[in-house]
Each structure stands twice: as structure tokens, then as C-alpha cells.
Amino acid sequence: MRKFLEKIYIILKIMFNLFSISNICKLNSLNLLRQMQTIIPACLPATMITSCFMSLVFSLQIVKEFLYLNASDLVGSVLTIIFLRELSPVLTSIILIGKIGSYFTAELATMKITEQIDVLYILNINPISYLVIPRILAFIIILPLLNCLSLLTSLSSSSFICFILYNIHPKMFFLSVLTSLSYQDLIKSCLKTIIFALFISTISCVWGLTSQGGAKGVGESITKSVVISLLSVLCLDFILSYYMFNSLDSVLKSL
């Protein structure tokens, strides 16, 4: 119970610092850029490779069914909806959990175990503002960009495999893509990744800052943060898809 309350307290402190205008103005831009430089090289290749092969698999499974129904002109539309609304945000988030979320937890847990966090307090430096907020903001900035890149990679790979195996011309494919691609779905997808990024980065940092028990505690914190982040993304994906974004449709249509 004590550990749970400690995590809740740190989460509340993080949210206060994150939404405080004065703390954002004091943010060290170099520290933010350093975190972004950590995320991009680590996740860009994995995101592109995963998106490429997942799109190839889905294309192999879906396209032949549409050809059987003589509906090849709908292939691009269906794949666009699948990738844009669900697969790209979730897959990109899972990659960042494994690559960056675990790294953030390990880094902060090691600093906690070796008492480097206590040194920051002695130097009158707020660890939340100095260590956590740049990581969360970097996550929030990078994840939507990687999601868009994942979508482009998926559609390009699908177009390629459709042309090579099923003789569906790329022009027909992308015309079908444009019929179902809307700014509303793009906004939904970006909102999903922003919310995912907030939860993933916060969970990773909190479990790192509350780590105890030496090297064993660091390993346990990493495992717990990864598992909880994965479960959070899957649960949030259902909630956002089923509830929040259904309500958003009516708002966007009224604009």
C-alpha cells in the first residue's frame, strides 16, 4: 500500500509540473533535444521494419479475400482504415515501450539506487522538472511523428505487395486510399498516440523513480513498467476507439 501511494504521489507531482506554465517555461531545451535524440535513432528502424512486415502480412491475408469478392478497388480503403485507426498507433507504442520505456525505467532506477536523485535535491534541482518532464515531452512529440511514418511505410509496403502478387496497380491502390483517408481519422490517430505517450512515459519514469532493492529492484521495476505500459495501451486503445472517438466524430462534423 505504501509503494502504491508513493507512485500516486509522484504521478500527481509529474502532472502538476507538466501542466504548470512556469515549469514549462523553465524547461531546459537542450535536455529535451537530448531525449529526442535518444528516442529517434533507437526506434526509427524498428518502427519502419515492423510496419513493413505487418502490412505485408495483413495484405496477404486480406487482399485475396477482396479479389475473391471482385472488390479490388476497396483494398486500399480497408487497409488505410486498419493501419490509421488501430495498427499504426498500437504497434508504434509497443515498440517504444520495449525500446524507450524500459530504457527510461532502467536509467532512472539506476539513478535512484545509486542516490543520484538525492544529489539533485541537495543541489536544489527538482528531479521531476529536470529528469522526468523532458522525457515525457519528448515521448509526446516523437510518438505521433513515428505513427505517421509507420502509416506511410505500411501503405507503401501494401501497395508494393498488391502490385507484385495480385496485379493491383499502385494508382488504383492509392486512389482507394484517398477515398477513405480523412483529416478526422488523422486527428484521432494523433490523439491516440499523444495519450499513449503520456501514459507510457509517465509509467516508465514513475516505476524508475520508485525502484528499491539494488540490481534486483531495477530489474523488477523494468519488468513491471513494461507490463503495465502494455496493458495500459491495450485498455486505452479500446476505450478511445469505442467511447471517446465516437463522441469526437459528432464534434468534428459540427466544425
From TrEMBL:
One of its GO terms (cellular component) is ATP-binding cassette (ABC) transporter complex. The gene is ycf63. It comes from the Eukaryota. It comes from Dipterocladia arabiensis. This is ABC transporter permease. Keywords: Chloroplast, Membrane, Plastid, Transmembrane, Transmembrane helix. Coiled coil: none annotated. The chain crosses the membrane at residues 39-60, 121-143, 149-168, 189-210, 222-245. GO terms for molecular function: phospholipid transporter activity. It holds the Pfam family MlaE.
